[in-house]
Amino acid sequence: MMKKTLIAATLVTASLPALAEISGNVALTTDYRFRGISQTGSDPAIQGGFDWAHESGFYLGTWGSNVNFANSLELDYYGGYAHDINDSLAFDVGAIYYDYPGGGGNLEFWEIHGGLSGDLGPVSLSGTISYSDDYFASTGTAFYYDLGASYSLPADFTLSAHYGYQTIDDGSIKDDGFFSSDEDNYQDWSIGVSRSMWSLDFDLSYVDTNLGSSDCFGDNICDSTVVFSIAKSL
Question: Which CATH superfamily groups domain 9-233?
């Protein structure tokens, strides 16, 4: 499940030119990582979505990607409210539903989140807490703590870093064949560089977790990797 970064350009609707904006995005990535774990068996993914944002701060959106389980499709639906607190600090609260149409196994789940983001000169910082009362594959109560930072480099490059901590109430679901150990929390992190040029957004990131293959479906989908993505705003 790797939650995506939505990269979008703005298309202003003809009927609501001063009130709302619609934006879209499409991306090709060498691996779809959700919180450090590959959702595509370390294979490439095609992803994309649409967002609607009102000038009041309310927003709605949907996003999709191929995966290598659950009928090979993930569709996410989300909404929330984001607003500036002052010139350098903003907040965002919302909810997201992760759907795997036809996948079975009670994979779908809701999550709510709240976060802050701000600028300290050339450095941008963010922090978000997400909560689910019944996480992926019915593994119970879960929290995810997400810290991020980005720094503007010369030549219009951006250096970004991320650290995440996932807790799961019941990490062991051996009977259903998902997790193969009693691991109930883990860490993930990434560091990368990005740049926009030729109307495209390029990103190259190193992604890793503290999970071994015995803790992660008996596979290598939690191992360290380098992910390259190209995104286009619509």
Answer: monomeric porin ompg (2.40.160.40)
Q: Which of 53, 42, 55, 103 is nearest to 80 (CA)?
A: 53
Structure tokens at 1: 């499940």
b/e burial code for range 163-184 (CB count within 10 A of at least 16 → b): ebbbbbeebebeeeebbbeebb
CA distance 80 to 68: 29
Write down how long the chain is. 234
92-127 b/e with 16+ CB inside 10 Å = b? Answer: bebebebbbeebeeebbbebebebebbeeeeebebe
pLDDT at 74: 97
Contacts within 8 Å (CB) and 24+ apart, 87-90: 88/118, 88/119, 88/120, 89/116, 89/117, 89/118, 90/116, 90/117, 90/118
Q: Express each pLDDT in 176-193 by its tens digit.
A: 444 544 557 899 999 999
Whole-angstrom distance, CA of residue 161 vs CA of residue 92: 20
Rounded to 5°, angle at Cα 95 from 91 and 96: 125
If you search the block for the tokens 């609607």, which residue do you land on? 52
pLDDT for 197 equals 96
Report pLDDT digits (tens) over 45-57.
999 999 999 999 9
Whether residue 217 contacts residue 69, with contact meaning beta carbons closer than 8 Å, is answered with no
75/95 Cα distance (integer angstroms): 14
How much is the pTM?
Answer: 0.88
List the chain residues with pLDDT less than 70. 1-18, 170-183, 217-218
